[in-house]
Fold this sequence. Notes:
By secondary structure, chain A is an alpha+beta fold. Helix content of chain A is 60%, strand content 10%. Chain A is elongated, with a radius of gyration of 46 Å. Chain B has a single domain (11-127), classed as Rossmann fold.
Amino acid sequence: MQFLGARxxxxxxxxxxxLAASLLLFVPLVFAGNEIGSILRxxxxxxxxxxxxxxxxxxxxxxxxxxxxxxxxxxxxxAHFVTHWPQWPMSWVLLAxxxxxxxxxxxxxxxxxLCDGIPxxxxxxxxxxxxxxxxxxxxxxxxxxxxANVVLHGASDDYWRPWRAWFTSNALTAFTMLPACMAxxxxxxxxxxxxxxxxxxxxxxxxxxxxxxxxxxxHEGFERANPAVTLFAALPILVWxxxxxxxxxxxxxxxxxxxxxxxSVDRGETSAxxxxxxxxxxxxxxxFFTAVPVLCLAAIAAGREAVVQLHRALLASLHDHxxxxxxxxxxxxxxxxxxxFAESSDAPLHRARTGDDYxxxxxxxxxxxxxxxxxxxxxxxxxxxxxxxxVEIEYDDPEPGRHETYAIRIEPLERPDGGAVVTRxxxxxxRQAQLEIERHRGELSHLARVNVLGQxxxxxxxxxxxxxxxxxxxxxxxxxxxxxxxxxxEYLTEILQDIIDDDRRAAAMIHRLRSLLKxxxxxxxxxxxxxxxSGVLDLSRSELQARNIEPTSSIDPAxxxxxxxxxxxxxxxxxxxxxxxxxxxxxxxxxxRLELSVASHDLRTVRLxxxxxxxxxxxxxxxxxxxxxxxxxxxxxxxxxxISRTIIAAHGGRLWxxxxxxxxxxxxxxxxxxxxxxxxxxxxxxTLPDAVRH
Amino acid sequence: MSDxxxxxxxxxxxVDDDAGVRVGLRRLCEVFELGxxxxxxxHEFLASLDHGCPHADCLLIDAHMPTxxxxxxxxDLLSRGVQIPxxxxxxxxxxxxxxxxxxxxxxxxxxxxxxxxxxxxAIERAVGAVVSDPDGP
Lengths: 694, 137
């Protein structure tokens, strides 16, 4: 039996206490069921109109562990014998018992397998699986054995007549009673303990009363009215049970109505032979076809209820504050987080709750001059009108003492009636992390800049030494001249003027270095590209001389001004120049050239290029070169280009590398110009090579 | 280019690409009544050679110059068979710089900015004569 139990969900595993409780329920039900089954049966084929033990045994098997099944099967067999033996021959009862057991086992295994455990009838799919297993396949198995039994004992010459009688009887039993029986056994076994609300209990009692009244009416009505018409009277109560109490409730109600109908037919028939076979068949079909829509309705209603519950649970589980607005901007639902926040806050915009006109609250806040109110009113209006699909506003808590940052997202509510979803999240941690990242990035960029200047230090020291050397020589010469009698004041004045000029030259250099070395915040200003380039060339000239590299520059005089941080752009260019120098370390004299160029790229951008005649770049590294820690140098860290690309990206530009056809490599940098022409349509990246479009 | 040489005077030639440094050094040398000629580059100095003979007893050069460095100039002079005592100025460590000039006629390697006393002492060593200080004791 292990393979049968394998698919059983853990919820069917119960202790012996639960087995005892289930058996206590099972014994009376199965004995009573056998008795009821014998009340109305087909006159000659020995099959009951409604065979209760099938539903009771199957339900008990579905709910219990496979190793307990033997108890239920044993008790069911005993009950069957007690009811039918010795009226019927031993062999007849024995084979009928085999048919019963085979049918119940097939139903239990199929239902558990197809429905993945005890069927809950939430949605039509479970109902369909249940019907295939318990209403079609299992009754067919039972009918095949049962009909053979009838034919074997000579009660009928025809095999298919008893087969049809057995099948319809059992299918009807499963359809009407099995869901209710399974619920009953689940409850007894302690698998389905739900807290019943008072209102629901009252409704249950009311429905039961109405059901009893209907059953009574049905019972009495059969004598006087058309039985079919009387059966229709039960429809409202069946629909009520389906909508409010699920498949189990509907199945219970169907069971009561069916019993009432069977008894009425039985009682209404005056002939000694009992009701005719056609009459029974008609009744069975009528109940069957009533049960189909009722159970479908129950499954759909349960599915819908599950969706609603899921939606509520989902909203409640969200940490973010969520409010749903209708098309007018009135809040019709808010989750627990939203409500809690509304209760704890004093800001009028935060206090809005279900039923309030959120849009009006935003408007009045905006009219009081609150910037947030204006932004929210605009955002909600745009989303509600469909002008925007997504609005996001980040703001600091207006209440004094609260240092929190929130992000509000407004998105359309995708449904025919329209509306919007407002989601508010506390993004303080994210914001702080962003600030921290920016701070680290700034520090890293500063370190890289210091590193670049470190590489230039020898050349810069030489540059700084030149005016200092001139000053010292001049001053010492002047000192000597002063000792002469008479001092040549004219000559001394000339010397002093040179000293002043050289001192200013040194001071200007120190100032330029200081601005590059200091750790400063991003300062965006208008930058003349030619100035930028020549400043960088001045800084690197000595280094280039020391390395015997000849710089040439072609600067388009019409190149428009840029908008950016001068220090950072200088850093990038210095880095590119030093890289170019390194690439030419092993080159011989005439090839040691470096070309800087500035050209208007298109109306919106300027292109700055640094070209060398060095060894060129390995093709597989051309794009990866801008990733951190990727370098072609043996002593490089591989951060310079990565930081350079970050800086250029922060300026809204792009940085990429390519090998020159004539040898060496060029690094291009495209930066947006300060005055963007409004008519320009060209995308800044439209003429970039494929390698940089990402 | 200025030339104040006389038969008895010690003559120095200054080669430096920085105009400010050139002027300062020239003035300092002139105070000590040395004959001074100044050149902005090694090429300029080479062009001034008269049938391979320099108009100077001592050469003062900057180690770092574009187009032709101090070492290159000395190699060039060596290849022309011109021997002239040389004093090299550098912003770097003088010891490492003088190592580059091994085997050349370098008398002294001085760090910039250069003190007048050091400069005069180096010139005296280079020419093997005493520079008279007109204002000295």
